[in-house]
Write a structure and sequence with these properties.
The chain is of the alpha/beta class. It has a single domain, classed as Spore Coat Polysaccharide Biosynthesis Protein SpsA, Chain A (Alpha-Beta Complex). Helices cover about 25% and strands about 20% of the residues. The strands form three sheets. Strands 3, 4, 5, 6, 7, 9, 11, 13 and 14 form a nine-stranded mixed β-sheet that branches. Strands 8-12-10 form a three-stranded mixed β-sheet. The longest helix has about 35 residues. The chain is globular. The chain starts with a helix and ends in a 6-residue tail after the last strand. About 35% of the residues are buried. About 20% of the residues have low confidence. Bound molecules: 2-(butanoylamino)-2-deoxy-beta-D-glucopyranose. 2-(butanoylamino)-2-deoxy-beta-D-glucopyranose binds next to α6 and α7. 2-(butanoylamino)-2-deoxy-beta-D-glucopyranose (BGN) binds next to α6 and α7.
């Protein structure tokens, strides 16, 4: 009786010790995992399985820091002569922020979902007084910490002044809450011919890099207003499609490969796929061509969860669809190395550092396929 009682006690003690040991080792590994990749959002995949979504778990200098603006002077990329001699202002070298502490990974003043203001937008003169911390050209960096990424927001544009006003009103407040270091580049196509959204984005990339060592681009339609500031406009590890759920599409992704609306790419990713094709004149297909380029170069489209990556779309008339888009989409793989950033040509009519944005007016030539 006495011996078996002792055996039971020894067994209980041993099991308790094992449980405590296991618990401690679990705690340890969880702590180490957090050190490697701090998690911010939790997502559910299609099967309802919980996945951790990692944002910016990489250092600030992860991206190429070489002066990519030099590209614009290389033989591959040039302005169509004769280009009128416009004084090209460049931005001042930013104040030395290296002594500031790095901004926190999760910006402390986020609001989450907020009401997008589209009905009562102040006029430009008033808007310009509302963002005193902006530098010329619509540049911003937080004053009390060093932003984690340098982001160029590229907005292809023509003849949508009301949209531009609403966009600027909403986006500056949004990005400043995110403690982002950014510049806004509005690239306007001159003339009345078919719009070439993709080529304007190539121009925006080249011109932004001429100004500053941006690490990534966010290509942004002017009529899309983000509705939740947890949708962080940071440099992505894989190209990120940002406008996942839009009110116009009942907040549903129209199809898996869509890369239009708002999308983010690092400078390196952009260069790897040779930017956008220059051949898509009129509505449609240029974003699908980019999705094909990403796949060809073994990059993946990443997305934030749909309840966060939400957008309101401003109303506008339908643009004329490009009847040639199917042809160019099918032949895209053959052209990736010669049609894109390395074959871009444009005539820069004007570049102005306006208070709220950098305005670049260009004439786009029809390039041979
Ligand atoms: C698709 C367009 C995209 C556009 C989305 C959302 C084409 C190519 C034909 C296969 N693609 O149909 O460019 O972003 O709709 O509007 O038209």
């Amino acid at each position: 009786m006495g011996r078996s009682y002792l055996t039971v006690r020894v067994l209980v003690l041993t099991v308790s010790c094992l449980v405590v040991l296991e618990y401690m080792s679990l705690l340890q590994s969880a702590e180490n995992a957090d050190k490697i990749r701090p998690s911010i959002f939790c997502m559910l995949d299609n099967h309802g399985v919980k996945q951790t979504h990692f944002l910016q778990s990489f250092p600030r200098d992860y991206y190429t820091t070489e002066l990519l603006g030099a590209d614009a002077n290389s033989s591959n990329l040039f302005l169509l002569p004769p280009s009128p001699k416009v004084a090209v202002p460049t931005l001042n070298v930013p104040v030395n922020r290296s002594t500031l502490p790095e901004c926190p990974m999760i910006p402390p003043n986020l609001q989450g979902k907020f009401n997008v203001e589209i009905d009562e937008v102040p006029d430009f003169a008033e808007l310009e007084t509302m963002f005193p911390s902006l530098e010329a050209g619509g540049r911003y960096s937080p004053s009390d910490c060093r932003a984690r990424h340098r982001v160029a927001i590229i907005v292809p544009y023509r003849d949508r002044e009301e949209h531009l006003k609403a966009f600027l009103f909403n986006i500056h407040r949004f990005l400043q809450r995110q403690q982002s270091e950014y510049g806004i580049f509005v690239v306007e196509q001159s003339g009345k011919g078919p719009f070439n959204r993709a080529m304007l984005m190539n121009v925006g990339a080249a011109e932004a890099l001429n100004q500053y060592t941006y690490q990534c681009f966010i290509f942004h339609d002017v009529d899309l207003m983000p509705e939740d500031d947890r949708n962080l406009y940071t440099c992505p590890i894989q190209p990120r499609h940002m406008s996942v759920s839009i009110d116009k599409f009942q907040y549903r992704l129209p199809y898996d490969e869509i890369f239009g609306g708002v999308s983010a790419m690092t400078v390196d990713q952009f260069r790897l796929v040779n930017g956008f094709s220059n051949l898509f004149w009129g509505w449609g297909g240029e974003d699908d061509d980019m999705a094909n380029r990403l796949r060809l170069k073994k990059l993946f489209i990443s997305r934030y969860p749909a309840n966060i990556a939400r957008y309101k779309m401003l109303k506008h008339g339908a643009e004329k669809a490009n009847p040639e888009r199917f042809k160019y989409l099918y032949s895209g793989a053959k052209r990736i190395s010669k049609d894109g950033y390395n074959s871009l040509k444009y005539r820069k009519i004007s570049l102005e550092l306006k208070p709220l944005y950098t305005w670049i007016l260009v004439e786009l030539p029809k390039l041979k396929p």
